[in-house]
Write a structure and sequence with these properties.
Length: 290
């Protein structure tokens, strides 16, 4: 099963038989004070810098979130999208919990974008899925039900099924649904990653849909988060996750290595190409800092 995303001229295919797709996470002001201030000041040059840097480091798609208490997000989102489109040509993932903000971003996004996100709550399904259908977009479905995040893999399977079935009734095909089985921090619950991995296996077996994760969540509150994130991604990709909203700069090498080890990189060509490209990027960025 393939999920197709498009920009003006680029097509990104997400699938279990395809290389892993990186959705760059950096255009999100949560925890990034400099980006938040740039959005308040409507200084879109910094947004463009983040977009170009992530694509250079291997992001296939860019997540776009403008959540900040000091701005009118519905007014700012189209400007941010246009600023990104002026400097890179990759599919976009419009990220908001608010329907009006999603609509504002989708109206100016070309091709076939991704929506982040909908969950299994009745209100969310009723408000977000019509937007996805009308725009002809794909959507990330969070495995959350009316009672919140299910604590078990079986509960998350049921929540995923509810989203897929409601989407089908609206004419949204399963290939346009990317399920997020959710990962919680192992710093608070040592079994959290195991529940997620079992959820991935159950959802893949039952529905065969593509799956995504906010992989950085697993390491929240821990030291050396990069090592934890990379180790978890390797397990999740083998279990059936096909894309992730994550840090292309820190995890790109690991992801390319995982694809290589899982037989998705004939003759190591993608790994070697990425290594050479990022080696030059590291040298260039080090020279700028010097």
């Amino acid at each position: 099963m393939h999920t197709i995303l498009k920009s003006n001229s680029k097509i990104v295919t997400i699938g279990h038989d395809k290389p892993f797709v990186i959705i760059g996470e950096k255009i999100n002001p949560t925890g990034i004070k400099k980006l938040g201030q740039a959005l308040v000041d409507q200084n879109f040059e910094y947004v463009q810098h983040l977009a170009k840097r992530q694509v250079a480091w291997g992001a296939d798609v860019l997540d776009v979130n403008v959540g900040h208490p000091q701005i009118d997000e519905a007014a700012v989102m189209p400007n941010v999208v246009q600023a990104i489109l002026d400097v890179v040509d990759v599919p976009l993932c419009i990220d908001s919990n608010e329907p009006k903000i999603l609509e504002a971003g989708l109206k100016v996004t070309p091709g076939k974008p991704l929506v982040n996100s909908v969950n299994g709550e009745d209100k969310q399904l009723a408000t977000v899925l019509p937007i996805v259908k009308d725009r002809g977009a794909a959507v990330i479905g969070m495995a959350i039900g009316n009672e919140g995040i299910p604590p078990t893999a079986e509960g998350r399977l049921a929540a995923a099924g509810k989203i897929i079935e409601h989407a089908a009734k609206m004419g949204i095909p399963a290939e346009d649904i990317i399920i997020d089985p959710l990962v919680m921090t192992v710093g608070h619950n040592s079994q959290a990653a195991l529940v997620t991995l079992k959820s991935i296996e159950l959802i893949k077996k039952e529905y065969g849909v593509n799956m995504s994760l906010g992989a950085s969540n697993v390491s929240f509150g821990l030291p050396d988060r990069h090592s934890v994130n990379a180790a978890f991604l390797a397990l999740a990709i083998q279990a059936g996750v096909t894309c992730s909203i994550t840090d292309a700069i820190k995890l790109g090498n690991s992801i390319k290595a995982i694809d290589l080890l899982l037989g998705k990189d004939p003759n190591s060509m993608r790994y070697l190409k990425y290594f050479r490209a990022t080696e030059k990027l590291r040298a260039d960025e080090a020279a700028v800092k010097a």
